[in-house]
Amino acid sequence: MDIEKLVKMQRNFFNTGGTRSVRFRRAMLRRLAGAIKDNEDLLNEAMKEDMNKSPLEVYMTETGMVLDEIRYHLKHVESWAMDKEKITPLAQFPSRSYVSPEPYGVALIMSPWNYPVQLCLEPLIGAISAGCTAVIKPSAYAPATSAAIGEIIHSVFPPKYIAVVQGGRKENSKLLEQRFDYIFFTGSPAVGHMVMESAAKYLTPMTLELGGKSPVIVDQTADIRIAARRIAFGKVLNAGQTCVEPDYMFIHESVKEEFITEYQMAISDFFPDGDMSDMNVIINQKHFDRVSRLLESGRAVVGGTTDPERRFIEPTLLDDVSLDSPIMQEEIFGPILPMITYTNIDTCIEYIISHEKPLALYLFTASKSTERRVLRCCSFGGGCINDTIIHLATSRMPFGGVGASGMGSYHGKKSFDTFTHYRSIVSKGTWLDLPVRYRPYTPLKDKIIRLLMH
């Protein structure tokens, strides 16, 4: 596929105005929803092949979330796309002021491998809803799912409107040489830097959804059984290959032993008879080797075994972890949870604010004062009190990072906003033309202007 010609073809189609009507946008959203429903088995099989993902988890974290997002946009896109009346200052009388949303144009969506359906199609929903065309670049690290997405998209949309470009770094580089009207990138901070450098060439606006080390704090007032189960859920989900996974944990020393017991019980409950055959595996050998080495950063008190033939790593809780150990220097992206004890909440806060701002933060506590303190002192993309992960599973709140964990946000109306430029328009009447603003300036005009602008 000639990428330069593809972008030009999409720009020509966008310039016809064919994507702008709300009727068209809604029809395309319905078409996408229908294609996902018709191809659920294809997507289940593809994700099983790529990462051993179970059908229930595929629906819970991928296709189900995408379909729910489409329903939300279908319900609200008509009102979002309307002009919004604004109050006109008296000095601009007689006129009408309003904000008019318009689509940016041709969008590039670059998605990662870890949630290859959700993180590809949720931004696409925003692009369609806003009235853009889109070029989608799925990750080559999930080849079966990327191929399935390409097959689905090409079966329902013409490439002049929505297209999928397959491939690896060569294709990524070629795409980033093109002039897009908006770029939406989800991936690592390292690649995010490269994408941002490329976007700077044309001053292209963009959203970066990155990652980082998202902390968990469990204090002495927390419900330890609930905390252990919900943290284990966040670590086991997708084998920890989640941008908002609980990366490391500060735990009050008075509840550490209880937590270890409850964490082991949670894992045992999740996998009856120790059968972990349906748990996700690590995406490829390179990442398996990297994550496996991190097991050496502490002592496994839960789990700790690996199966290189399957690229499988058992859910693991590490004790005796130092803050300067290898596992604390990089995003883990695996089912290993390093545990660090503390006695004073200030220790946790000082560590968190002295490092890059994380994409998520999770606090388990029954203390409202501790909750207020952590939220007041720590900057992060989003998070949960007494749970993990679930803050992103809604169309009613935006999801995004801050600082090194990203810029911009999406989900629900924020997805529409992301791919939309809001034009401020003043429509001035011609039946009256007050001369007060025109030269020559006089003391009388000065008084009138001050009166009108007061």
From TrEMBL:
Q: Which organism is it from?
A: Aminicella lysinilytica
Residues annotated as the enzyme's active site: E209, C243
Q: Which GO terms describe its biological process?
A: aldehyde metabolic process
What cellular-component terms does GO give this entry? cytoplasm
Signal sequence region = none
Q: Which domain of life is it from?
A: Bacteria
Q: What is the official name of this protein in its record?
A: Aldehyde dehydrogenase
- Describe the location of the Aldehyde dehydrogenase domain by residue ranges: 2-424
Output the InterPro entries linked to this UniProt entry.
Ald_DH/histidinol_DH, Ald_DH_C, Ald_DH_CS_GLU, Ald_DH_N, Aldehyde_DH_dom, Aldehyde_DH_NAD(P)
Query: Iron-sulfur: present as a keyword of the record?
Result: no
